[in-house]
Design a protein that fits this description.
mainly beta, elongated, 192 residues
């Protein structure tokens, strides 16, 4: 199972698992990106974590680990994702899309406004976070104003002007978020 990958590598795992941390992802709780409280229900077809961990992998569920027990992973992550007492936190990728680091490419126009991995302040680079967003935009259309009709029924005083659209009130596909088509997977991280 991906044994040749380096410590700190993250891959998608299509099997069911039972997360160690069943708390909502609250790293960004003081921002507009707060998560909803989530209760993870145990399923009968979940892969026991000890099987994943025996292969050197664990779920990216934000748990705290001892640097002494996981020295290889600590050497890669350090306290990038935060700390709890003397322990370091691993990334919490539950429910999130992953995006490549901009690294000066200009493909992420808001790179300088990203939140730090710990949720405190702004930071570019690995582990930084962005809230969901929809690019601001409007559409122009022609609006015709009818001011009166003549005795013969013809419209008189027709004028047109440019108007801007608003937010659709009943789009064909609407939800509480903007998102592409997607499939849910578990992200796992190699710890040794």
């Amino acid at each position: 199972m991906y044994s040749a990958l380096m410590t700190g590598s993250v891959v998608a795992f299509a099997g069911q698992t039972d997360p160690v941390s069943k708390d909502a992802n609250n790293i960004w709780k003081n921002s507009c990106c707060t998560s909803k409280d989530a209760a993870a229900a145990k399923r009968n077809d979940e892969v026991p974590l000890n099987i994943l961990e025996a292969e050197g992998w664990m779920l990216c569920d934000g748990r705290a680990l001892s640097p002494h027990s996981y020295p290889e992973l600590f050497a890669v992550l350090g306290y990038l994702y935060g700390r709890k007492d003397d322990d370091f936190l691993i990334p919490d990728y539950r429910g999130l899309f992953l995006r490549g680091v901009d690294a000066g490419s200009g493909m992420d126009p808001d790179a300088a406004k990203r939140m730090a991995p710990t949720g405190e302040g702004v930071a570019e680079g690995i582990g930084s976070y962005q809230c969901d967003a929809l690019e601001s935009h409007t559409h122009t259309y022609k609006s015709v104003t009818l001011s009166a009709t003549s005795n013969s029924g013809n419209a008189a005083g027709q004028a047109s002007s440019d108007e801007q659209t608003g937010i659709p009130t009943d789009p064909a596909k609407s939800s509480s978020e903007t998102r592409p088509r997607n499939i849910a997977v578990n992200y796992i991280i190699k710890y040794r």
